Amino acid sequence: MLPWLAWLGILGVFVALRARGVGHLLMWDEAMDLASVRAWVTSSRDAFSNAFWAHPPLFPLLLARLAPLRTGFAERAEGLSIAVQAVNLFLLFVLNRRLFGSAIALLACAALAGLPGAVFFDAWIKRDHLVVTFGLLALLALDRRRGLMAGVLLGFALLAKESALFYLAAVLVLVPLAFKRGERVKNAAAILATAAATSVWWYVLFSTFSGTYLRFALGRDPGLSGWNQPWTYYLERTWLDVGPVALAVLAAGLGTWVVARWRASRSASHATLSRNPQGSGFGVQSSVPNVQFSIFNHWHPIDFATDMRKSADREAVRL
């Protein structure tokens, strides 16, 4: 009972910090998503209606239930984003509690609750929020050795946004920890097949953006010149964005995980995803850097959001 009471306290802080972002100045992607939902519910045929089909539909379909033609649509959509992220905080707690215990689970949730980047972006109207929901559910299904269910959930994540590919990759990497040696290939194939069966139909039949994915990834699409950065672009920023302390703790956590994995292999014990010898090291790797980032990083996006609102034209028409 006590861990859940502590989690409820963290949830209160989580929601309170993000509620400040409701009513923020909309970014281009957010405004386009809202306008595309309005175009869809009114059966319009224009640039906005085309944008509705550029990315998978699950989150826009939820937005369509929020009275998009009435005043305050943007604020309601921002509230939905925070609500989905609150669900994700719950799933993160459940997953980490199974894997690493209550202490690590609470530490991870507390770190996420105060993480400046998360506080800033969780109120944004982004399809990625729902990707995290289904991605975490897929990891929970994998921990219970339900490969087919994990594949279906990953398929729903792919119907939320293409970034779900990262969760698909993570699940496949973790398959050896969840299944015995003779079951790994079969379950990996089942996960891939069910994920594809659940989601590929939309990309083939409805997506208006599918043909540009590869060109976009390789930086060869002439219409996306502003995004044409080398593949090392984000890696080169890691030292600045994350910081040396977080990278050191990350390396220590990863080293702990590798040593524990090696010891487990020498003892011939079968490692499972939850309650395994690697848990403590992997928990340090995933949780402590977030705490460091929250405390020591000098990037303050909340102040940036406040400055944007102050400088924005108060008479601007909101969606």
CA radius of gyration is 21 Å
Q: Assess the beta-strand content as a share of residues.
A: under 5%
Profile the largest sheet.
Answer: none
Helical residue percent? 55-70%
Number of helices: 17
The end-to-end span amounts to: 43 Å
Molecular shape = globular
Helix/strand/pairing category:
mainly alpha
Stretches where pLDDT falls below 50 for ≥5 residues?
276-319
Order of helices and strands: HHHHHHHHHHHHHHHHH
Q: How many strands?
A: 0
* Mean pLDDT across all amino acids: 80
Could you describe the 3D structure shown?
The chain has 319 residues and is mostly helical. 70% of the residues lie in helices and 0% in strands. It contains 17 helices and no strands. The chain has helices spanning 2-19, 28-41, 47-52, 58-63, 73-100, 102-114, 116-121, 128-143, 147-158, 165-178, 184-205, 213-218, 233-236, 238-242, 244-266, 279-296, 301-311. The longest helix is centred in the N-terminal third of the chain and has 28 residues, at 73-100. The radius of gyration is 21 Å and the shape is globular. It starts with a helix and ends in an 8-residue tail after the last helix. The model is unreliable at 276-319 (pLDDT under 50).
